[in-house]
Amino acid sequence: xxxxxxxxxxxxxxxxxxxxxxxxxxxxxxxxxxxxxxxxxxxxxxxxxxxxxxxxxxxxxxxxxxxxxxxxxxxxxxxxxxxxxxxxxxxxxxxxxxxxxxxxxxxxxxxxxxxxxxxxxxx
Length: 123
What we know:
Blueprint: H1 9-14, H2 16-47, H3 50-72, E1 76-79, E2 84-91, E3 94-101, E4 109-112, E5 121-122
Antiparallel strand pairs: 1-2, 2-3, 3-4, 4-5
Helix pairs in contact: 2-3
């Protein structure tokens, strides 16, 4: 297993344009999954689901694929709905998470590895 990637604030910020697009697409896909789930369950028993089942499957596949890609890049996806991600980083010689969520202009927060969003502190 490879060592966890450590991001600088600049490296994390450089990833934001792609992350914004990816997270918006993942949010749309999640909405398709949620809206289709009940409809698909009922229709699969009857005729295989048709178009809604296809959209549902495509949305699930996209979420899985993008989650794996982000993980491979070292980005920790915390919440699709809010677009919350953490970047492993260092601050004063300690391992921390650089914290960003969709809608923020740049990575401007961090938190210790043993706390979550509620432990966010400005950089």
